[in-house]
Specification:
This protein has 302 residues and is an alpha+beta fold. It has 4 helices and 20 strands. The chain has helices spanning 186-200, 217-226, 240-251, 282-301; strands at residues 3-6, 10-14, 17-20, 23-26, 38-47, 50-58, 64-71, 78-85, 88-96, 100-109, 118-126, 129-134, 137-143, 150-157, 162-171, 175-179, 204-206, 230-234, 256-261, 275-278. The longest helix is centred in the last third of the chain and has 20 residues, at 282-301. It is elongated, with a radius of gyration of 22 Å.
């Protein structure tokens, strides 16, 4: 279920801010000689899948106004995306506790943005794919190296004012990408166990066999893994395609649930991972459903 929310509850974490209904203003320092001045404020909303939109006005080209994603604390990793940064008009960046702020993607000449003009910036998060649009024109996209789940908010940089208004969060059901050998009895396992349990969590399960239209199947698989919140992999048969997809999910740091039929010999490469084992029986079906619920609950709680 899609949920739209206009945020009016804010907490200032770093820097000076003012809050007045739907208007949020970063006040800067007032000291033009100050260096590395920035501000962070957050809402009470968390986002793993969906879209954030707000209108932003910059006092001049020395400041930045961005959307903040994946916030947990000012000393942990978070993502910032929006107007200006790294001498460009649009940027996606990351705060790394060991390295500080670093750019992930940039575009546009900063001189093309006008001071004191309102711009509507929209940041869309699909799994680990991040897209930035300004005034309904997409300007950037980037695949994050790790999920960005956490609180959302605003980030500003500089010594002068940055104004925001109409901060809206649209939360969407997360997607669960399933990798397995789609022959019987595994197709039945998908339809009878995996899909119903995932839907209990108001998430959208799908696999590459449900993607229609022209194009390369490997591209569809890569996109499915990148844009999912969780990956479920059934690894009982030694299937090269399944293990290729599983390796890509692990490379992205994607939360992954492994399933395998009890009594089957697992390849050495995955023998060290926690695997949800199940019996191919009526009782085994119930146990698998219960185990899958517990794994999903643990992942979504984190």
């Amino acid at each position: 279920m899609t949920e739209n929310k206009i945020s009016t509850s804010w907490a200032a974490i770093v820097g000076r801010w003012s809050f007045n209904g739907e208007q949020v203003t970063y006040l800067g320092t007032g000291d033009e000689q100050a260096k590395n001045s920035f501000g962070i404020c957050v809402t009470n909303t968390e986002l793993t899948e969906g879209m954030i939109s707000c209108r932003t006005r910059l006092a001049d080209s020395t400041v930045e106004g961005k959307v903040l994603l994946g916030y947990r604390s000012p000393t942990e990793r978070y993502i910032l995306a929006g107007l200006l940064g790294w001498r460009n008009a649009y940027s996606i960046g990351e705060y790394d506790p060991s390295l500080g702020w670093r750019s992930l993607a940039v575009a546009g000449n900063a001189d093309n943005l006008s001071p004191n003009q309102w711009y509507t910036q929209t940041v869309e998060l699909n799994g680990q794919r991040l897209r930035v649009s300004v005034d309904n024109v997409r300007v950037l996209q980037h695949v994050l190296k790790a999920p960005a789940s956490g609180q959302v908010g605003l980030f500003a940089w500089g010594n002068n004012r940055v104004e925001f208004e109409g901060f809206t969060v649209e939360r969407r059901p997360g997607r669960v990408f399933v990798v397995m050998q789609f022959t019987e009895p595994y197709q039945q396992l998908y339809q009878g166990v995996i899909k119903p349990v995932v839907e209990e969590f108001e998430m959208r399960p799908y696999h590459v066999g449900e993607v229609f239209g022209p194009g390369l199947i490997l591209k569809d698989i890569a996109q499915g893994i990148v844009e999912s919140e969780v990956v479920i992999a059934e690894i009982t048969p030694v299937n090269q395609n399944v293990f290729y997809e599983l390796g890509y999910a692990h490379a992205l740091g994607k939360p992954t649930i492994l399933l395998a039929e009890r009594g089957k010999q697992l390849p050495f490469d995955v023998s060290g991972y926690r695997v949800l084992m199940y019996d191919n029986s009526i009782a085994g079906k119930t146990q698998l459903e219960d185990g899958l619920r517990k794994h999903l609950s643990a992942i979504l709680r984190d």
